[in-house]
Specification:
alpha/beta, Rossmann fold, Four Helix Bundle (Hemerythrin (Met), subunit A), eight-stranded mixed sheet, 24 helices, elongated, binds guanosine-5'-diphosphate, binds magnesium ion, microtubule binding, dynamin GTPase
Length: about 750
């Protein structure tokens, strides 16, 4: 290898794959030149780069660090643009230097972003200007670096650093501690282990006094990354030579010393090209009596070769790490790819199987969610089947329980119903007819909660259906949407029949009022309840009336001297009492027979029906007689009562004034109200039991059993497969990216294998 450019193809290939693989750069070492002022540092860098662009000369020229970043670009890079009209002709200077084709190589300064310098003479001018701008015109130095990037297909991605020379005596604007300042500035760069130090010493100064070697030894005591460069071999006193140094006899450096001859001040003034200088340098060594034998290990070309080797070694050292990293990346990417369903594109033949598989999985998920056998059962909230049972047992059950069966029925309503069912003449079975008339609409109160129950279960099934997807299905959003659509349609379709069945069920309960239901409160029981309630109230009333009477007698005694009080005690009682008037006592006694008869009739009527149903002769059984006895007993109790306003125990507050309500009417109303509550309770219990069964049968189980068939019949069609299996776009992109990455990584592995 003769120049740094020889590494370009390998490094580029490697860096390409590494870039694709998202691995950080190879992190190639940085080259820094250090040495005393005018020792030839800038000259060396220039020759290594193969371009004239650095300010060189006597005195302190380099006064700010120059960070020179070489960036390799492809020869066909779109970055490379054609000559503009103004630049149609390369400058005369460039043409003279044979750099007419330099359009693919340019420099850019960090402080002048976007401006391309195709003319390297201009670059040098800009470095000088920029140096003066920050470091002043009078030999001042600055630690702020100038950053220059060179873009070219002919350079290696490498960073070179030109540094100010080590100086001892402050001159011009330099501060008294200039030596320390420069030293620190240099150390900032060369102390980094990634820095290869080119320690420059001019041959015309005694090596023992070499400032660069001293400084390099401070940061690289074992000389692992220091290359000694001896310049100005052409300027040695005649009769002396640097053979000892170059042969490593004088100063031990692991990487050795390289002797070079740069362009002299005169060469610079004469604009001697890099190529000419290199040729002359080679000639110098091959003809020099002292260096002739070692000429192949002398000169700038050899220095470049040495650097190449160091860089290559560096790359090789890093390769195992890169390879390991690549392997990890390959593993990860393969895994990611698998999560996207692998790299294999689905063949038309395998589509059917795939659709069927996804479909089955979806149907299974739907069913198992309902059955509560799903593998990913949530512990946070009730879902699926459990939620459906919750709807039945809690939501529906409670909404039924909360219905007050007579809340919307006033005593007036009941009385009106009784009167209407009586017609023009009083009927013996009046209460039963009225009861029938009144209880039917009440049963309708059960419809709303029942329909709500259907809806809640339907909504829950919808929710389940939307959560039946799987990771594999996410890859095919169209298929997923269709699966959901078909199941949603099925559910919607079943909603109607379920609702109408539920409606029918309530209608059925309204169609026939079965007063023979064994749990239905008998008139006897109802009467007993009423009588008991009245007795209680009457007792209370009597107690309070006695109290009043006693008090009045005391008052009368006390007022014995005055006018004697006459007539009945006041019929008025406290408002919280239910007693109204003692006059009603007379009313009761006025027609006890009629009351008794009508209730007996009602009672008999009902029991007679029962008897008929049981096919028993219409004579009183023992049981009946016992019941009769108790009834008469209660009646007797009742007859003794004062008229009482019926105090509602459950609901339906009685209006305060019912002057036209007869005792019989009141009793009938209360009786009917109690019977309605009893009957409603029976129907409610049945509805609570039947509605969930109906919902299960018409909606839940139906869909559970039908879902698979429905999916197959709607979606398992050859003509649909292609569309159904259209992949999610982003997922397809991710997968494509994965495949590309994987290819890149594998290619990189091959390249690494070649270099190793
Ligand atoms: P720097 O200050 O270390 O960067 O040194 P420069 O590269 O600016 O060189 C300082 C001066 O020494 C310039 O005039 C160069 O032409 C001259 N020079 C550098 N190297 C050599 C060399 O090997 N031989 C001769 N004859 N002159 C050299
Ligand atoms: Mg310099």
């Amino acid at each position: 290898m003769a120049s740094l450019e020889d590494l370009i193809p390998t490094v580029n290939k490697l860096q390409d794959v590494m870039y694709d693989a998202g691995i950080d750069s190879l992190d190639l070492p940085v080259l820094a030149v250090i040495g005393s002022q005018s020792s030839g540092k800038s000259s060396i860098l220039e020759t290594l780069v193969g371009r004239d662009f650095l300010p060189r000369g006597t005195g302190i020229v380099t006064r700010r660090p120059l960070v020179l970043q070489l960036n390799n670009i492809k020869a066909d890079s779109p970055l490379i643009t054609a000559y503009t009209a103004e630049e149609a002709e390369p400058t005369l200077e460039n043409r003279l230097r044979g750099q007419s084709g330099a359009r693919d190589t340019w420099g850019e300064f960090l402080h002048l972003p976007g401006r391309r310098f195709y003319d390297f003479t201009e670059i040098r001018g800009e470095i000088e200007n920029e140096t003066a701008r920050i470091a002043g015109k009078n030999k001042g130095i600055s630690r702020i670096p100038i950053n220059l990037k060179i873009y070219s297909p002919h350079v290696l991605n490498l960073t070179l650093i030109d540094l100010p020379g080590i100086t001892k005596v402050p001159i011009g604007e330099q501060p008294p501690d200039i030596e320390r300042q420069i030293r620190n500035l240099i150390l900032e760069y060369v102390a980094k282990p990634n820095c290869i130090i080119l320690a420059v010493s001019p041959a015309n100064v005694d090596l023992v006094n070499s400032e660069s070697l001293k400084l390099a030894r401070d940061v690289d005591p074992h000389g692992k990354r220091t290359i000694g460069v001896v310049t100005k071999l052409d300027l040695m006193d005649s009769g002396t030579n640097a053979w000892d140094i170059l042969a490593g006899k004088l100063y031990p450096l692991r990487l050795g010393f390289v002797g070079v001859v740069n362009r002299s001040q005169q060469d610079i003034q004469e604009n001697k090209s890099v190529e000419d200088a290199l040729a002359r340098e080679e000639e110098f060594f091959s003809k020099h009596p002292a260096y002739r034998t070692i000429s192949s290990k002398c000169g700038t070309r050899f220095l470049a070769k040495k650097l190449n080797q160091i860089l290559l070694n560096h790359i090789r050292e890093k390769l195992p790490d890169i390879k390991a990293r690549l392997n990890t990346l390959i593993g990860q990417t393969e895994q990611e790819l698998a999560s996207y369903g692998g790299s294999n594109i689905i063949s038309p033949e395998s589509r059917a199987g795939l659709v069927l598989q996804m479909m089955n999985k979806f149907a299974t998920n739907f069913v198992s969610s309902i059955e509560g056998t799903s593998s990913d059962i949530s512990t946070k909230e009730l879902c699926g089947g459990a939620r459906i049972y919750y709807i039945y047992n809690n939501i529906f059950g409670n909404s039924l329980k909360s219905i007050n069966p007579t809340a919307n029925l006033s005593i007036t309503d009941i009385r009106t119903a009784i009167r209407n069912s009586t017609g023009p003449r009083p009927s013996l079975f009046v209460p039963e007819l009225a009861f029938d008339l009144l209880v039917k609409p009440q049963i309708k109160l059960l419809l709303d909660p029942s329909q709500r129950c259907v809806e809640l279960v339907y909504e829950e099934l919808m929710k389940i259906c939307h959560n039946c997807g799987s990771p594999a299905l996410a890859r095919y959003p169209r298929l997923q949407a269709k699966l959901i659509e078909v199941v949603s349609d099925l559910l919607r379709e079943r909603l109607g029949p379920t609702r109408s069945y539920v409606e029918s069920l309530i209608d059925i309960h309204r169609a026939f009022i079965n007063t023979n239901h064994p749990n239905f409160l008998s008139a006897t029981e109802a009467m007993a309840d009423i009588a008991e309630a009245r007795r209680q109230k009457q007792q209370n009333a009597k107690r309070s009336a006695d109290l009043k009477k006693k008090r009045q007698q005391e008052l009368e005694k006390a007022a014995a001297v005055g006018e004697p009080t006459n007539g009945n005690p006041s019929p008025k009682v406290d408002s919280d009492s239910t007693i109204t008037s003692s006059d009603s006592e007379g009313e009761d006694e006025r027609d006890p027979k009629q009351n008794k008869d009508s209730f007996l009739n009602y009672f008999f009527g009902k029991d007679q029906q029962r008897k008929d149903g049981d096919d028993i002769a219409p004579s009183f059984s023992d049981k009946q007689e016992r019941t009769m006895d108790s009834f008469f007993q209660q009646e007797a109790d009742f007859m003794a009562m004062e008229t009482l306003k019926i105090q509602d125990t459950v609901a339906a507050p009685v209006e305060a004034e019912h002057p036209e309500l007869t005792e019989r009417e009141e009793l009938e109303c209360e009786l009917i109200r109690r019977l309605i509550i009893s009957y409603f309770g029976i129907v409610r219990e049945m509805v609570e039991d039947q509605i969930p069964k109906a919902v299960m049968c018409f909606l839940v189980n139906f869909c559970k059993e039908e879902v698979q068939n429905r999916l197959v019949s709607k979606l398992y069609k050859e003509s649909l497969f292609e569309e159904l299996l259209m992949e999610d776009e982003t997922l397809a992109q991710d997968r494509a990216k994965c495949i590309k990455l994987l290819e890149g990584y594998k290619q990189a592995s091959v390249i690494i294998g070649d270099i190793l």
